[in-house]
Design brief:
The protein is an alpha+beta fold. Helices cover about 55% and strands about 10% of the residues. The protein starts with a helix and ends in a 10-residue tail after the last helix. The model has no long low-confidence stretch (mean pLDDT about 85).
């Protein structure tokens, strides 16, 4: 299966990484690797569900934030040439105290006001 899929995908110039239908593909130094997708058998644990719900709440709060707040976060990350975007900083500040504590430093260095995300 893998050899045939690899040949087929390389012949049609199909370069993808991740899941594509029932297949998972990635590229390594030997070429394209293809195998059947591994489906999860166990349901998520309560801890996983709680963590996913926290991420969903952070995304919902980001979308509900005023456009000026979102713009300030985006501008701060661009001004400081961070390898993050504003949404990533928002989620990090929602999820961890360490990132929330870094917001005043980001504000000072970017010369902008960053409204902290609402507490959980």
């Amino acid at each position: 299966m893998a050899a045939n899929s690899q040949f087929l995908l390389s012949k049609i110039c199909f370069k993808i990484q991740g899941d594509c239908g029932p297949l998972t593909t990635y590229t390594n130094r030997n070429g394209i690797v293809v195998f059947l997708k591994a489906w999860l058998r166990d349901p998520a644990s309560p801890k996983q569900i709680a963590h996913r719900n926290r991420l969903r709440a952070a995304a919902k709060n980001w979308n509900a934030a005023p456009p000026t707040t979102r713009h300030n976060y985006e501008r701060a990350t661009k001004t400081l040439s961070l390898y993050l975007n504003g949404y990533n900083v928002w989620v990090a500040a929602t999820m961890t105290q360490q990132a929330r504590a870094a917001l005043p430093t980001l504000e000072r260095q970017a010369h902008t006001t960053l409204t902290p995300p609402p507490p959980e």
